[in-house]
Automatic annotation (TrEMBL):
It comes from the Eukaryota. Belongs to the SVF1 family. Signal peptide: none annotated. Residues 219-384 form the Svf1-like C-terminal domain. Keywords: Cytoplasm. This is Survival factor 1. It is found in: Cytoplasm. PANTHER family: CERAMIDE-BINDING PROTEIN SVF1-RELATED (PTHR47107:SF1), SVF1-LIKE PROTEIN YDR222W-RELATED (PTHR47107). One of its GO terms (biological process) is response to oxidative stress.
Length: 384
């Protein structure tokens, strides 16, 4: 079949794209060669809300030393410019009580809109607002009586994006790309407030280490990436974030990794010189994906004083928190078509090692190595 016909079918049905090769992607790593990262302002936190196919999200990850860990998320999803839906998700992992089931709440939102400056999101019984000074978000949702959210998340160091604008571009004419990927980070924040459930009443997340990520996938997600790795490390003094995706063969199976290491009040370094490696894995008997059991994340870069910095986080992931069949609620015949034609069977594996804390090892210049234990929330996603 001609490539144009394949592309037309892919645009309409979401099937596999032709192989354009690595020249059809401009990784954000090219920007990072000149500007490893930029500190962001409120203007960088605007919702894009594309009127074409996209998935745009804001996610707040809350990690606690003594209680549950959780995340709350707003999703804006546009399908081919024909239909737009929004969703509010809440997930609570009871990591201190392995016998207690994870709480999952996912509710469609009605009458969504954005503030005039596009920095805040609203829908019926839901609001995610950026403060006027750009230092904190308030997240309120009463869309589900079993997960009533009333949180404030305040950044404790600057946020960043990789390169000048954080964007990886896709297309055969990169001056006029047909798609993009972008991530913006507040890697180290502190939360206050509660999530109220029917079973537990108000769960206090005040003091929880928190990370905020605003992400835009500016075309069909399974066309952008075939696999993902994500790490959110929160220690007493340092935080680290790593986000990696691998494109399908249509874009040369290109690996794009972004991340950085920070402490209160300061970005130590950030950029694209980072890796995510599954040191050991076991085959999932249900879907044949190689579920990781041990991982190694690395970061390298240059601090503001010119010194070289390296960081490593390595160890066992322990028993997974959850395995998510992304297509579980899709009708069977659609799932069959997606699996056979597009080659997609997306599963997300989530981890939070709770018995033995992993340690971030940080070496900066001639200073002694710092080894800091902390909380790791990790995801490994397999799509196609």
């Amino acid at each position: 079949m001609f490539n144009w016909a394949k592309q037309t079918l892919a645009n309409v049905a979401g099937t596999q794209e032709p192989e354009y090769g690595p020249t059809a992607i401009l990784s954000v790593a090219e920007q990072a060669k000149e500007v490893p990262y930029t500190e962001i302002t409120s203007a960088d936190l605007k919702w894009t809300a594309l009127d074409s196919t996209c998935v745009e999200t804001q996610v707040f990850y809350l990690s606690s030393e003594t209680g549950p860990t959780a995340f709350v998320q707003v999703i804006y999803n546009n399908v081919a410019g024909i239909r737009t839906t929004c969703q509010f998700n809440t997930k609570i992992f009871y990591v201190q009580d392995e016998n207690k089931e994870t709480l999952w709440s996912s509710t469609p939102l009605k009458d969504h809109e954005f503030s005039e400056d596009m920095q805040s999101f609203y829908a019926t019984d839901c609001a995610v607002e950026l403060s006027e000074d750009g230092t904190h978000y308030t997240i309120k949702s009463h869309t589900d009586d079993n997960a009533v959210v009333n949180l404030t998340v305040t950044r404790s160091c600057p946020g960043f994006q990789i390169g000048k604008d954080g964007r990886t571009l896709f297309g055969t004419d990169l001056e006029n790309p047909w798609g993009s990927m972008r991530h913006v980070f507040w890697p180290r924040c502190v939360a206050s407030g509660t999530i109220t459930t029917k079973a537990d009443g108000p769960i206090d997340f005040t003091g929880s280490h928190t990370q905020f990520i605003h992400a835009l996938q500016g075309m069909k997600p399974h066309h952008l990436a075939s696999r993902w790795n994500f790490a959110n490390f929160q220690g007493k003094d340092h935080s680290a974030v790593l986000m990696q995706f691998i494109t399908p063969p249509s874009y040369g199976s290109t690996v794009v990794t972004v991340g950085g290491v920070v402490k209160d009040g300061e970005i130590i370094f950030a950029g694209t010189d980072a890796t995510a490696t599954h040191i050991a894995a076991t085959e999932d008997g249900e879907n044949e994906w190689p579920e990781p059991t041990q991982i190694k994340y690395t970061w390298a870069g240059t601090a503001k004083d010119g010194s070289k910095v390296e960081a490593v986080l390595e160890g066992a992931l322990e028993e997974r928190l959850d395995r998510i069949d992304v297509m579980a609620e899709v009708p069977g015949f659609v799932k069959k078509i997606a699996g056979s034609v597009a080659g997609t069977k997306p599963f997300i594996y989530q981890y939070f090692p709770r018995h033995t804390k992993l340690s971030l090892k940080l070496k900066q210049g001639d200073a002694p190595e710092v080894s800091e234990p902390g909380l790791l929330f990790a995801e490994a996603t397999f799509i196609s």
